[in-house]
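M20/M25/M40 family metallo-hydrolase, pasting as requested.
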Amino acid sequence: MNCIELTKELIKIDSSTLEGANKAIDFCKNLLLENELIPEVLENECQKMLVCTIGKGDKKIILNGHLDIVPFKEGQLKPYEKDGKLYGRGSADMKSGLASMICAFIELKNENLPCKVELHLVTDEETGGDKCSKYLAEKGFRGDFVICGEPTQIGIGVQAKGVLEINIDFFGKSAHGSRPWQGDNAIIKAYKSFERILNLPFSKEKSELYDFPSINLAKISGGDVYNKVPDYCKMYLDIRFLPEQNAEEILKQIKSVVETEIHVHEINPPVTTKVDNVYVKALTKSIEKITDTPVNIFGQHGSADTVYYSKYNIPAVEFGPSGANWHGDDEYVIIDSVCKYKDIIKDFILNIG
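Structure tokens follow.
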């Protein structure tokens, strides 16, 4: 089965649910068994994941791919080709990349590999990745370099911003809506604080791959009725900070302009892989060899399962085929890029010094 046919078979599996994603793992397990490989299926909180290893040596390359998908519309699980594109939910994000990894893995199994190659297939990336990739990294399934097959247009996403999610309670004084000057509007207090946060020093910083961090006013909740000055408001912020920045320093700056308690919902570290990392250079060389085009090396504004490996100082990148509209209508992957992606993975692994 080639990587395009395998992508089609994976698209047909409704892996938007726990049951369906686990079914997709079983499908991949059987495929690997049919090709005389020895996959291991692990389970954490009912979430299945698969690990399979080939090769030998001191170095280990991890190929990480997720089988879960976001919700879909009717007809999106019926893959079809048109104008050199393969359409279907998950075609780009990321069943094509995962299928190419599996096909490359099968084709490499009888080669005299210069390193170990470990396949990590997971089922919860779209919902955070904490039950699979995070679990695998915590349990010692680590290596020297990680490729997550997210769609990147055959470019290399070497870094990703960190995540700082906070919420802040603002208190004011209620009054009749016809006399707002007699009250203290908590919603206005919240928004004025947001404007001050936008002008803090951390928000103006830039780095090699980023012009700025991201600050999203994700949600604001306050007020009861038209004719009352609101005495309470809750503001929710999603801050994506630069790899060189520090979440604690950002919180310190925010506290300096907000006169109320700040509640931290979540902090996730950034991915800090360097552009000149030896594995990034080797991958770049393979891409240029197979595609005969310059490589786009960039930083992601969001993050993927790379973050769980980066936590252990393992260089990790997002690298996958070309496509568009993932999570949206008419999701597709460019067929030619899928075939080239498989060849790049093979060339990269075979030529690691």
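Note for the archive: The chain has nine helices and 17 strands.
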